[in-house]
Amino acid sequence: MSAALSLHVAIIMDGNGRWAQRRGMPRSAGHVHGAKAVNGIVEAAAQTGIRTLTLYAFSADNWGRPSLEVDALMRLLQRYLTIETRQCVEQSIRINVIGRRDRLRPSLVRAIEQSERLTAACSRMHLRIAIDYSSQHSILEAARRVPRHGGLSALSIEEFESLLAQVDHSVADTGAVDLLIRTGGEQRLSDFLLWDCAYAELYFTDRLWPDFGEAELKAALADYSRRQRRFGKVLAAAETG
Ligand code: IPE
Ligand code: IPE
Ligand code: MG
Question: Is the CB of 224 under 6 A from ligand 2?
């Protein structure tokens, strides 16, 4: 689908717990199935020509969940990175993990660093995975890094964005989010990419994340292609009015 070319798509992958509970399974089983859905979507996104895909995998507030669930999620994330990196190299998908690293277990940090190192030269799609991520925290941390001398008054949006990228261990050329998808029926941002979504098109679906596949991604992209993005301006055709 050519409309997807060069898009930055971000996804709040929500609904794993409810997916499992509806089947009488523990919430962690939902996360296992959620990880499988990630595989499918990453491949479909790369095939569709999406330039950047940012996935919300674990929020800073998710530390507040029961420790059994947090442990299961941390193990899954490490496993995902270890197993999927080779496939990403084969498909030329660059992996980058955004969010804090100082609260992650050392083995997960090593897996992140290894994935980023091995895929650094990949250029077909940029896959960013948000782990221990809080947009408010990133913005505050970037503000703390503004140089004290000659800093604030001359600071441009681009300069602030490069500080934000540094905070998130991201690369600076990611660009704003074009389309934000949230599965699981909730219509909120839950502290995800607040800065980057300034003009993002929002797409909410009731489908729970483990049930979100290629067809659902295509439906979201088709919906996006019908949107009229104005960025505060008027369209050329309406200018004379
Ligand atoms: C999203 O699914 C995955 C994470 C937040 C890690 P949830 O675990 O939030 O699933 P629900 O919303 O409780 O169904
Ligand atoms: C947002 O989902 C975080 C991720 C999908 C990783 P949550 O389930 O944590 O968000 P709330 O609690 O519904 O806002
Ligand atoms: Mg949820």
Answer: no
- What's the gap in Å between 225 CA and the centre of ligand 3? 27
Instruction: Give, using CA atoms, the residue closest to atom 1 of ligand 1.
Output: 14
CA of 60 to the centre of ligand 1 (A): 13
For residue range 75-106, list pLDDT tens digits in order. Answer: 999 999 999 999 999 999 999 999 999 999 99
Report the half-sphere exposure of 82 (CA within 13 A, side-chain side): 11
Query: Closest ligand 2 atom, CA of 209?
Result: 5
Rounded to whole angstroms, the Cα distance separating 171 from 204 reads 27
**Distance between CA atoms of residues 51 and 136, nearest Å:** 25
What's the DSSP call for residue 33? H
- Cα dihedral across residues 18, 14, 2, 97: positive or negative: negative
CA distances from 136 to 111, 140, 150, 151, 168 (A): 26, 6, 24, 21, 12
Q: Show which residues are catalytic.
A: 14, 62
pLDDT for 210 equals: 98
What is the pTM (predicted TM-score) of this model? 0.96
Widest pairwise Cα distance in the chain: 62
Dist. CA 133 → ligand 2 center (Å) = 11
Nearest CA to ligand 1 atom 6: 58
Which domains does the chain show, CATH number per domain? 2-133+176-227 (3.40.1180.10)
Contact 33, 21 (CB under 8 A): no
